[in-house]
Amino acid sequence: MSDFAIEAHQLVKKFPARPGTGDKTADRDAIPSQPKKRSLWPFGRKEPKALFTAVNGVDLEIQRGEIFGLLGPNGAGKSTTIRMLCTLLEPTSGTARVNGFDVVTQANDVRRSLGTLLAGERSIYWKLTGRENLEYFAALYHIPQAIAKKRVDELIERMELKDRANELVEKYSTGMRQRVAIAKALLARPPILLLDEPTLGLDPQAARNLRELIAQLKQEGHTILLTTHYMEEADQLSDRIGIIDTGKVIALDTPEGLKRRIDQKEVIRLEVTGWQEYIGEKLRGLSEVSNLVARKQAEADLWEVNLQSNNSRAVLPKLVESIGQNGTRLVNMNIVKPSLEDVFIHLTGKALRD
Amino acid sequence: MEVTLSSRSLGKPGFLSDLRAFWAIVWREWTIFKRYPSWIIALLIWPLIFPMMYILTARALSGMDGSGLAVFTQTTGASNFIGYIVVGTTVWMWQNIVLWDVGFALRNEQMRGTLESNWLSPTWRFSYLLGHTGPQLITMTMFILITAIEFGLFFGVRLNGNPWLALLVMLTSIPAIYGLGFAFASIVITAKEAHTFVFLVRGLVMIFCGITFPVSLLPGWMQSVATWMPQTYMIHGMRAAAFANASLTELWPDLQALLLFGAFWLTLGYLLFQWMERRARRTGAIGQY
Lengths: 354, 289
Hints:
Number of strands of chain A: 15
Shape of chain B: elongated
Helix content of chain B: over 70%
Strand content of chain B: under 5%
CATH topology of the largest domain in chain A: Rossmann fold
Number of helices of chain A: 11
Shape of chain A: globular
Structural class of chain B: mainly alpha
Distance between the termini of chain B: 42 Å
Number of helices of chain B: 12
Helix content of chain A: 25-40%
Largest interface: A-B, 53 and 44 residues
Strand content of chain A: 25-35%
Oligomer: heterodimer
């Protein structure tokens, strides 16, 4: 049995680039070019297809009993990585083992070792009750009937679904559906859980409850691979975090270790009304400023601008001067300790939700 | 931290587990089907509506006194033109419903978002298609029974032949009809759309297999095409068994052809499913809507 719950070495996934998408990452060299031959057969492939590299040499070693957070913006390759690990996708090259089983040659053993939450509330049947869903998936995971019945009751109780377990899922709230989906992932008591955006779309209370549950699952010995858009969630839950961007793991450390990387930097957080993009360009031109990211807030015309600096004392007067022009107004300003999001911006040059 | 969880899950692989998973898929399909009650209306109305179109046309063409029907009997050898038409249209509807129902089974799951969560389990994946067939067979049996009852009650159609032999022809038709459905299901997942193919196949069945007329009326090349379509033998065999009192020996050529077509389409359906599954692992097609 391998020491690692999950290990991946030089994992690569390439897809044919979709025509007309202007895919900048399409890599025509990926297929060795052949000398052109004239063929009488009219249906033969005329030229090699361009390939889009979604995952580009990912290495991961996840310890048993660990919560590992995989962070990355949309399209960074985290879902493709997870889909390769749970056998939905075959790697183009490289190897991956889950619970000691190879994801290509021992796919069924991998599936038996995994509990997965991929499509959230859409992964269960809305025309079945919560209980019927769990009984159905228990059969698919080959859990003997007598054990399945007890396990379904236990999970219904644990997920606080007892009062409504016999109602159709279509009548549930998003949070309840998500709990059924998580109960489904836990049915076979798998040693490893893959949770893709588990709190997406949940209200704050439901999200908090789910985070508590994930922490409990770790205490029970589950290894958890978690992808999330929420930095605080990753920070709070993960033992280690891998940051993935353009298909590569660009940093891998504990949350504290990652934050230490930009310890010498200060993060200036501004709230501004009437923000103009040219001001951003102007500030980016200052030698003391790096990684400036401006995001529109929910309130009308309010922007949050984050930037990093090695010397905030020197840069502050320049900031105030640049912003207080042409109707742009500084509403609030803080110098804060770097968060995981700042680390992310430092490493990738963009915010997680860009 | 103390790690207490076993590295093995609660699942116990084996033939019986796969059988139970298959049964769970059948049960799930049937339970969801029952929760859309409008199917009862469709089940009562459709067996009448579609054949009625042809029956009324036949009445109109046979003249006010129905004298033209004698010509029909002379051509087809069938004294009961309503029974003759109903057998043809029922086979057509059976194939049509299977193409929509079984053919789009995986695609519907894909659009609902549940295909991936099924695919992630260790169950033998072909079970998802086979399991879908169970409830489909139950509803089709009900459909055929209701057809027989309605035409018996409202049009006085009676079986002149051996109902067990008619049942035997139906059972022998199942592999070919559903094998074609399996092949479709895999193509639909790959192409994401196959309405054109469904329209084409049911159009071919309508024209070439003689659902309301004898195949012998067709030009020679069309008769040749008809010999390559299992529905031709289903219709011929069921008419002979239900209304012409054919014996098992007389039915044997039709049964033999149906068994051969059944083996062909089931094998092709399974191979296409395997191809689709491998392709989906390379392209990620299972998770794409």
